[in-house]
Design goal:
The structure holds 2 protein chains of 2 kinds.
Chain A lengths: L2 H34 L5 H13 L2 H12 L6 H8 L7 H25 L3 H9 L4 H12 L1 H16 L3 H7 L9 H10 L3 H27 L3
Helix pairs in contact in A: 1-5, 1-8, 1-10, 2-5, 3-5, 3-9, 5-8, 5-9, 6-7, 8-11, 10-11
Chain B lengths: L2 E9 L2 E9 L3 E5 L6 H9 L6 E6 L2 E5 L4 E2 L7 E4 L11 H7 L6 H14 L15 H13 L5 E5 L7 H17 L4 E5 L2 H7 L2 E6 L2 E6 L1 H6 L4 H7 L1 H13 L1
Parallel strand pairs in B: 3-9, 3-10, 7-8, 8-9
Antiparallel strand pairs in B: 1-2, 1-4, 4-5, 5-6, 10-11
Classes of the chains: A mainly alpha, B alpha/beta.
């Protein structure tokens, strides 16, 4: 395996890992709110969090540029104050992966949280435990299969992010070329052997993740 | 000391409007399903909010619409046993019971848990999970969990309905026994007349969201206040009804 391939693999894992950490934190909180609370704008939040699942990655990439680009709605302030822009850094790849992977986490964990028996939650409340403690000790442990499945699916999705990453982080060799981008470059420049190796490796890793997701979620209490 | 309940609630076309008061006695809410019995328990415990009224436990108001008081379930001292028992499937018997001992010191929790398991005849099951023990044992665990922190009142929602007849009568005796150690108001919901009469100090008959009669079982059985109550407590009539239903 060449150095560039190793770099791409390492970068992909790094980007997906960091993105997944944020996906789990934000996704779990959002799923809990959507499944257990009623509030104004709940439908809207649900749609916003699901949209990345159906929108073309280029559209997501475009929105992210509009928001976080050097002249973007938020990005311009970040740039004025710090002189730094997220564009064309590996953080941009994390941001893109986070946005596209988040819906998978929200959908899977929301279903899992909603499947927890309401009486168990009520029992915890009548036994004097706060909502926070109940979420930690009753809801999350009983929803853990869905949470694990959501985490693994999100990680796999983050590893495979291409379109939005390309628009936001670019395809800079040795800097932002994650594996899907490196595969694109190899294929475009006719480097079949490099492309073959990476495609096979990627398929193997993704397959392994799906196997792991199945294995972990089948285990009963 | 005791429990007084005065609640009104309208949901999906169903209207509940019930008032009653009990001392440190065992009250049975009896009636057909859909009479509003379980809903009443949920509102007493704070799991559902009445539209109007007041609920007082030992003179302290836990709900009072006029004074805008509505304590969350955590702040009301009720032990609650759910119809399906609601034991936590991911916790052992010991962990389930200890989960009810919220707010006690560790040594006190451990001591009480050991005592309760001994008295409730479930010692030895500490490390079993709920799906590894029998129906009767589950009942005892659910009761122990609800009582370990010595609540001011106990609410039981058809706790024995899943058991077969002999075990049900054993559990009734067991409940009477532990009443001696926990002389607090107990409200038990059932649609089983035998159970109601066997356990009740005070029988509260509900139909269509209202209390249609309340009194000692003897009073209610001897002088039903209306044909509605008469039908509810007359087993022979009910059996005859069942026969005519079969013919149709």
């Amino acid at each position: 395996m060449g150095d560039s391939l190793l770099f791409s693999l390492k970068l992909s894992v790094q980007v997906a890992t960091v993105a997944t950490v944020f996906v789990v934190i934000v996704g779990l909180s959002a799923a809990y709110l959507l499944s257990r609370k009623n509030f104004l704008g709940k439908e809207l939040l649900d749609i916003l969090l699901t949209l990345p699942l159906v929108l073309p990655p280029t559209v997501i990439g475009y929105y992210l540029i509009v928001l976080f680009g050097r002249n973007g709605l938020l990005g311009q302030y970040m740039y004025t104050w710090t002189g730094w822009s997220i564009m064309f850094t590996w953080y941009a790849a994390v941001l893109a992966s986070f946005v596209v992977a988040l819906p998978l986490m929200v959908k899977t964990t929301r279903a899992a949280i909603e499947s927890v028996d309401e009486n168990l939650i009520n029992a915890s409340y009548t036994l004097g435990h706060s909502e926070w403690w109940t979420a930690l000790k009753v809801i999350l442990p009983l929803a853990r299969k869905g949470i694990i499945a959501g985490t693994i699916l999100s990680f796999a999705r983050a590893m495979g992010e291409f379109g939005a990453t390309l628009m936001l982080a670019g395809n800079l060799p040795g800097k932002t070329n994650t594996m899907p981008l490196a595969i694109y470059s190899a294929a475009a420049s006719g480097d079949r052997s490099e492309a073959n190796t990476m495609v096979l490796l990627f398929t193997l890793i993704s397959g392994l993740f799906l196997y792991l997701a199945n294995k972990l979620t089948k285990r009963v209490i | 000391m005791g429990l007084s309940v005065n609640i009104k609630k309208a949901v999906n076309g169903f209207k509940l409007d019930a008032q009653w008061e009990i001392n440190d006695e065992l009250a049975v809410l009896f009636g057909y399903s859909g009479a509003g019995k379980s809903m009443t328990l949920q509102m007493i415990a704070g799991l559902m909010k009445p539209d109007a009224g007041a609920i007082h436990l030992n003179g302290k108001s836990v709900f009072d619409s006029a004074a805008a008081v509505n304590l969350p379930p955590q702040a009301r001292s009720f032990g609650y046993v759910f119809q399906d028992l609601a034991l936590f499937p991911h916790m052992t018997v010991r962990e389930n019971i200890l989960y009810g001992a919220h707010g006690l010191s560790k040594s006190e929790r451990d001591k009480r848990c050991r005592d309760m398991m001994e008295r409730f005849m479930i010692a030895g099951l500490e490390n079993k999970y709920p799906n590894e023990i029998s129906g009767g044992q589950k009942q005892r665990v659910a009761l122990a969990r609800a009582l370990i922190r010595r609540p001011d009142a106990l609410l039981l929602d058809e706790p024995f309905s899943a058991l077969d007849a002999p075990l049900r009568s054993e559990m009734r005796n067991f409940l009477k026994e532990i009443r001696r150690e926990f002389p607090i108001p107990v409200v038990l919901v059932t649609h089983d007349l035998t159970e109601a009469v066997a356990l009740a100090d005070r029988l509260i008959i509900m139909a269509n969201g209202r209390v249609v009669q309340a009194g000692t079982p003897t009073e209610v059985l001897n002088s039903p206040s209306s044909p509605e109550v008469e039908l509810l407590i007359n087993t022979r009539d009910q059996l005859l009804h069942a026969i005519s239903d079969r013919r149709q």
